[in-house]
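User: Predict the structure for this protein chain, please.
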Amino acid sequence: MPDRAPQPVDRQLPTDEARDLISLVRDIAQREIAPGAAEEEDAGRFPRELFTLLSESGILGLPYDAEYGGGDQPYEVYLQVLEELAAARLTVGLGVSVHTLASYALATHGSKEQQAEHLPAMLGGGLLGAYCLSEPSSGSDAASLRTRAVRDGDDWVITGTKAWITHGGVADFYTVMARTGVEGPRGITAFLVPADAEGLSAAAPEKKMGMKGSPTAQVRFDGVRVPDARRIGEEGQGFAIALSALDGGRLGIAACAIGLAQAALDQAVGYAVERRQFGKPIADFQGLRFMLADMATQIEAGRALYLAAARLRDAGRPFARQAAMAKLHCTDTAMRVTTDAVQILGGYGYTADFPAERYMREAKVLQIVEGTNQIQRMVIARHLAGPETR
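Assistant: Here is the predicted structure, written as structure tokens:
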């Protein structure tokens, strides 16, 4: 069946520089990322060389200061870059989002000395990061984490296990939240831990239904010694840093979800136009046309929602509620749209000959990572009605 090339998304970008950046990303996505996506995902191969290329191209540090190797781009632009990358391969788009999340603590709460020492390599020097908050017994209830850091002279000794860590075992650095004080959120501190620290190891990657090319693994800290110079922020500030990072990270997940949904819609439209039944293209049947119209409308609404939240962030205004809404709506949209794409392709949609089935499997995890969609509803409701009574 002949391929029908999808039309590029018509984006409203604030500067000529941003338009040039999107053109560069689309070129990299079409030439370097998309061609091998299906085969590499099926093989479970992590494309480290693509992240090296993105780093060399200035794409791994887009929302951070140019002084330290970042791109000085507003979130409004950075998120649209993520969308383009995720449309080509979710492993890459989500990987850039996770790296941005892992760099956040140091970029926003590190000292000038820490930033000058570490950020250039993190943002443009080829390093790849991971973010360590969740644990086997603390996922949604992240404030109950048990990984502990104990002061020993000028060092901290970290012991515990982190779970569900994207890039676990392949990252060059880990931003780690560990308990240094009392129980609850006030006793947590953030640390920057190099991957080659003695006592740090990763378990075998989880066997997942989708995103097989993106390693997700437990990361173990067995008496890992970290100098106090790698503590980020004040003691006890770690949980506040973690939550602030997640607000931006949720927008990254929202953008990736819309990129994945757009790829599924493009596949469905291309198939519907070319596939003929009863003497005409199936795109001529009203029931199917309505499905395509609904898919496109949901995607446009999701894109508008995450961009509205991004513009609030760029303006320095509160955006946590809007970030939760964007993550909720966009990831639910990705699940609906990819499911409908499989339905439109019929039997072909259920085979690995077309990417629709992979898109559907990948969409599911976006409703779970960086706060399940049930947690997003709790966040939104708290902004509307206040905290739950106890």
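The two ends are 60 Å apart (CA to CA).
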